[in-house]
Amino acid sequence: MVHLYQILRTLALTNEDLATFGDQEPMTDFPAVSPLPVPTLGIFKAQIREMYPRLEPALVDRFANVQSLRYENLVQRQEKHSQAAMNRSCRSGKYCFALGGDASLLPRAEGASVSFRVMDPSQGLLRLPARFECPICFEVKEFQKPYDWSIHVLRDVWPFTCTFPNCSEPKSFKRKADWVRHEVRRHRQPEWWACSYTDCSYKAFRKDTFTDHLVHKYKMLMPNVRMPEASSSEEKSETQRKMDKERLWEMVKQCRHSYEQITQQEQCQFCGVTYGNWKALLGHVGSHLEHLALSVLEQVN
């Protein structure tokens, strides 16, 4: 049977493939993960506090709950697969490792000059590209290169969880892009519009909402400019409508702010490393979340 710790070791070798943001340095300096006694919620909390002593208590509780659920799901999958193997009803068929199955090598992609070695149930190595039974989800998948295998394993453990302590929807995500979208849109607000009229504190996070504010409250006029009102029996001239439209969009442009414009340093909640760019910070934090999620594989045999 494939030991899941071999997967964790394998993924460490392909960590550089997992960098989502171009400016990010690969994360390699992670805290050590020690095998636990029978994992419980309390045990997971203690482990996370040991790995990341800087984490807020609310995040320790959240991540421990997620780890506990991950562990339970992995154990349930293994038990279900073991039962299927005993009954010789595993859906993986000839690929079922528990029934003596093996991987099937695939032809290299056109133009590829090398093959890759990742894992083998008996020797710890497997040549890619290949088709084999994933020892986490127990489904037969095809993998062309280590990156494909790494991404599949990460998605099996849903590694990304919201890192904002007061989040009312602290979901977990299997894809980094979905987690980034949640954190940015719900908590970081990548862009917003602040009304520049005197004594107006209106702020919107959608361009169309802010445009409606200008149209309905200020009649599409720029500050300190009063346009003559059209007669009820007359329509504004095309030229005047064009001028109004240009003024409106110019003000919308001037009132826009973006998170990228903020240059203040922000600390990683896990290790304290600071970043002045939120994209780099999220890439860094995402690596911690991946490492934490993968550490649960150490506990499942």
Low-pLDDT stretches:
12-28, 222-227
- The proportion of residues forming helix, as a percent range, comes to 40-55%
- Distance from N terminus to C terminus (CA atoms, Å) equals 9 Å
Count helical runs.
Answer: 8
Structural class: alpha+beta
Order of helices and strands: HHHEEEEEHEEHEEHHEEEH
Strand content: 5-15%
Report strand order across the widest sheet: 1-4-5
Overall geometry: elongated
Radius of gyration: 27 Å
Main beta sheet strand tally, sense and closure: 3 strands, antiparallel
Would you count the extended β strands for me? 12
Mean pLDDT: 80
Q: What is the structure about, briefly put?
A:
This protein is α+β, with helices and mostly antiparallel strands and 301 residues long. The chain has a domain of 191 residues.
